[in-house]
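== Sequence, structure tokens ==
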Amino acid sequence: MTDYKEEQANELEALQSIYPDEYEEISADPGEFTILVVPDEQDGDDTYAMKLHVKYTETYPDTLPEFSIDMEEGELDEEDFDTIMKKVTEAAEEAIGMGMVFSMVSIAKDTLSEIIVNNKERREREAEEKAQRELEEEEKRKEGTKVTVELFTRWKTAFDAEMAEKERIEKGLKKEDPKMLKPTGRQLFERDHSLAKSDATFMEEGDVDVDIALFERELVITDDEDDNENDVLRSIRSSD
């Protein structure tokens, strides 16, 4: 017949020796105590620690003790905390029939350390990925849009269409009203008398020399006569 009280007393003595600073007794009979679990790994200034609370049952170690885990320092998300509870429970179940608290403490410590390391590495990886994305975006802004065959072909097609449309509009204006684009001879003459005078430089020997001043006076007289004739016509029409 198993002497559960003796086995429990022997385990308590061993635990107090192994964890002199971490062990805290709550009750001697039945055995109830806490053990502070401090992981080997910490996350910078963020420290983590938890307490394993154990209470022996009458038939311990042939049955699992009552136990719970409470965070003393730091915070874990629900998923990480559940992972620790699951692994500690599995370690206790595997040790049924013998002292199991040491195994429970060791698994809790190792699992917490692993979670801290994984979370730290994940944050560092996310920070690196973010920095890489920002660097790539900055490089893209500096490079601008790369010209590919497809982009150039698309631009060339649009450009040719625009030029063709402008040419079509200009040709339409010339066809509808040539006067809008081509000035008359008189307009050219009145705009720049030098056009008429410059012709003299091209006259060959034997050509008749023309006095441009006489031509200009005749042009003025003719215009005046036209104006006078128009005044006479207007007078006759008004008397009728």
Observations:
- The CA atoms of residues 39 and 112 lie 6 Å apart.
- The beta strands are 23-27, 32-37, 49-55, 66-73.
- The chain has a mean pLDDT of 79.
